[in-house]
Amino acid sequence: MSIVDHYDAIFHNPVVISEMLETFYSHLGAKEKSLLLAYLVLPLSMSSYSKESLQNLNSRSSLRTFLQVNDRIIGVQGRIKTYWQQTSNALQYSLERGILLMDKELSITTTNAFSQKTRKGKKGKEVESLAKIFQPLDVVSIYRMLGVKSL
Questions:
Q1: Which pLDDT tens digits describe the chain residue by residue (151 residues)?
Q2: Which of 4, 50, 15, 23 is nearest to 110 (CA)?
Q3: CA distances (Å), 31 to each of 18, 23, 84, 119, in order?
Q4: Do the beta carbons of residue 149 and residue 77 sit within 8 Å?
Q5: Three-state SS string across the chain, please?
Q6: Rounded CA gap, 108 and 70, in Å?
Q7: C-alpha closest to that of 50 among 138, 105, 129
């Protein structure tokens, strides 16, 4: 294996990604079909285009203000496909561990076993900000505003 392969194995590890998803859902709250939002977390929080703006969002920020600069969502459809498998693996890992729970409406919630203090990692700020700007909107509106037509 090359250095790039080792880096990819560590960086896209389901355990690491699951911590990001757990942080996201702990700040999102209950929302119908919130499972679908998991596939937006990695493409938006790990992109160099949107990372800095997510770090600098304030309490008055919304998805509309985030989208005022088109560069932030350039290539989001392709990035969703790139991170699809890693997101699915991380979701499965969190669900199997019992940290995330899914109900019949595909709504994801965190359990009491999740500790925000121990889980807040390097990507915590971006993921928290993403959850906060997604909170007031329904899933269909979020996908429509981002211009994502399919998963």
A1: 666 555 666 666 888 889 999 999 999 988 999 999 999 999 999 888 788 888 888 888 899 998 888 778 888 999 999 999 999 999 999 999 999 999 999 999 998 766 555 445 556 889 999 999 999 999 999 999 999 988 7
A2: 23
A3: 19, 15, 21, 22
A4: yes
A5: CCHHHHHHHHHCCHHHHHHHHHHHHHHHCCCCCHHHHHHHHHHHHCCHHHHHHHHCCCCCCCHHHHCCCHHHHCCHHHHHHHHHHHHHHHHHHHHHHCCEEECCCCCEEECCCCCHHHHCCCCHHHHHHHHHHHCCCCHHHHHHHHCCCCC
A6: 29
A7: 129
- What six digits make up the tokens of 94? 């969190």
